[in-house]
Amino acid sequence: MAQTQDAKPEAVSIEFREVQKRYPGQDKAAVDNLSFEVPAGEICVLVGPSGCGKTTAMRMINRLIDPTSGDILLGGQSVLERKPAELRREIGYAIQQIGLFPHQTIERNISTVPRLVGWDKPRIDARVEELLELVSLDPDLVRKRYPAQLSGGQRQRIGVARALAADPPLLLMDEPFGAIDPITRERLQNEFLRLQAEIRKTVVFVTHDIDEAIKMGDVIAVMQQGGHLAQFASPEDLLLHPANEFVEQFVGADRALKRLALQRVRDIDLWTAAQAKAGESVVDARRRIADADLDYLLLVDDDGRPLGWTWGGDLEGDTVPDKPKTPAEPIVELDSVLRDALAEVLTSESRYAPVVDGQGRVKGVLSIEAISQALGTEATTGHVEHHPTPQ
Ligand SMILES: Nc1ncnc2c1ncn2[C@@H]1O[C@H](COP(=O)(O)OP(=O)(O)O)[C@@H](O)[C@H]1O
Ligand SMILES: [Mg+2]
Q1: Minimal CA–CA distance to 213: which of 198, 187, 194, 232?
Q2: Ligand 2 centroid to residue 184 C-alpha, Å
Q3: Among 199, 227, 262, where does a domain finish?
Q4: Ligand 1 pocket test: which of 27, 32, 52 has the largest number of ligand atoms within 8 Å of its C-beta?
Q5: Are residues 248 and 276 both part of a single domain?
Q6: Same domain? 247 vs 278
Q7: Phi and psi at residue 84, to the nearest 5°
C-alpha cells in the first residue's frame, strides 16, 4: 500500500476497562463490566445474540455513545480525553447499512474524510484510485457512478474503502457483510482478510454469526444478554475449550466441523492434476497424467487458468482439443477456508476442484479425500479406489 504523506501510526492497541453502559430508563445494563485488550494489528470480533450489547460496545470506541462508567484506551490513551469529532476522523467505521451518500458519486463518497481534513485534489484522486483497487473494483468503471448503480457487494466494498480512506489505525465494522448473499459474503470476507494481511489495522468487527467470528477473528469476545463477556479467546481456544454452557451452546454442536474454518486450502497437501494447453501433444499430456494424482487432464489457458477436465481415456488424436469434456467447476482459492471449500466441492457435481492463486492460476486440486487426509480422518465418500472419477 502506498505511503500517505503524514506519518500515521500503522495500528493501535485497544483496551476496554470495566466498561458499563446503562441507557436511561433501562433497568438492565446494555454493556456490563466489559474488560479485554486487543493488541495492535489484530482483528477482534464481538459476537453474540441480538441485543447483547455488541453495537453499544463498538460505538463507545468512537464516542457515538459515551460509557456510564469505565474507560476505553487506544494506544494507552483514554478516548474520553479526545474530542469526539477528531477521534472519529481517526477511526474508520463501516456498517451494515453502509451509509453511503446516495446523491454523491463513489469518488466523493470515498473521499469524504480526506476532503474534510483538507487533502489536495491530486492526493485525493490518487487515494481513491488506490482504495478502489484495494477492494477489487475497477476505478475507471465505478469512480463516477452513484451507489444505486452498484450491486450490494460492490457497495459494501465502497463502504470498506471509505472507512480506510484516511488510513486510520483503527477500523470498526458493525455487521459489515450482514445484508449480503452468502456467496458474495464469503468473497468479501476472503477479500477483507487478504486486505488485512496487507494493511494490518486493528479491527473491531461485530457479528451475530459465530462462523463469521471464527473465520475473521484473531481474538473473539463472546457476549451474552445483559452485555456480559462470556469468553475472550482465540478461535481455537473457543472451539476447544468453551468457558461455560452459554458459549458451548452458542458455538454449537459441530465444533469439530467448525475447526475446518481455521484451516485454509493452502495449509493442506493438495493433489496434483496433469495440466495442458489446447494444441499441446497428447502423448505428453498422457505422460503427465501418469505422473499425477488424477486420471484427468486439466485444460488451462495461456495464463495457467483452469478451463475444464477431460478424462485421460477420452483423449484422442495428436493434440489436446480446446474443448474440455466437463467445465472446471467449482474453482476454489488457496486463501479459502477449508469449510467453505468443502461446501463448494460437496454441492457441485465434480468431486475435484482446481485450486487457484490470487491471479487465478492452478496450484493444485482439492478433493474430499485430501481434506480428510489433512484432518486425519477416513473420507466416507463410498469410493474405495484412491483416484475416483470427477463425476
Ligand atoms: N438508544 C438506546 N436506548 C435504549 N436502549 C437501547 C438503545 N440502544 C440499544 N439499546 C438496548 O441495549 C441493548 C443492547 O443493544 P445493542 O448494543 O444494539 O445490541 P446488539 O448490537 O448486540 O444487537 C438492547 O437491549 C437494546 O434494546
Ligand atoms: Mg448491533
Answers
A1: 232
A2: 21
A3: 262
A4: 52
A5: no
A6: no
A7: -50, -45
Same domain, 174 and 65: yes
Nearest CA to ligand 1 atom 2: 23
How many Å from the N-terminal Cα to the C-terminal Cα in the chain? 43
Q: How far apart are CA 123 and CA 109, in angstroms?
A: 15
pLDDT tens digits for the chain (391 residues)?
444 444 455 789 999 999 999 999 988 999 999 999 999 999 999 999 999 999 999 999 999 999 999 999 999 999 999 999 999 988 998 887 667 889 999 999 999 888 988 899 999 999 999 999 888 899 999 999 999 999 888 898 898 899 888 889 999 999 988 877 888 888 888 888 988 988 899 999 999 999 999 999 999 999 999 999 999 999 989 988 999 999 999 988 777 777 788 889 999 999 999 999 999 999 999 999 999 999 999 999 999 999 999 999 999 899 999 999 999 999 999 999 898 898 888 888 788 999 999 899 999 999 988 888 877 655 444 333 344 445 4
Query: Closest Cα to residue 139, out of 148, 128, 124, 123?
Result: 128
| CB 327 within 8 Å of CB 349 | no
User: What's 191's domain CATH number?
Assistant: 3.40.50.300
In a domain? residue 112 = no
27 and 70 together in one domain: yes
Instruction: Tell how far the Cα of 53 is from the centroid of ligand 1, in angstroms.
Output: 6
User: How far apart are the CA of 45 and the centre of ligand 1, in A?
Assistant: 18
Q: Give one word for 99, left, alpha or beta, with left for phi > 0 and alpha for psi -120 to 50.
A: left
CATH of the domain at 301: 3.10.580.10
The number of the ligand 1 atom at minimal distance from the alpha carbon of 24 is 4
CA of 215 to the centre of ligand 2 (A): 19
Q: How far is the CA of 208 from the centre of ligand 2 (A)?
A: 8
The span from the CA of 102 to the CA of 346, in Å, is 40
Q: Which domain holds residue 297?
A: 265-375
Residue 81 shares a structural domain with residue 218: yes
Which numbered atom of ligand 1 lies nearest the CA of 49? Answer: 22
Instruction: Tell me which residues have their CB closer than 6 angstroms to ligand 1.
Output: 23, 26, 30, 48, 50-56
CA distance 246 to 52: 13
Protein residue with least CA distance to atom 14, ligand 1? 53
pTM above 0.70, yes or no: yes
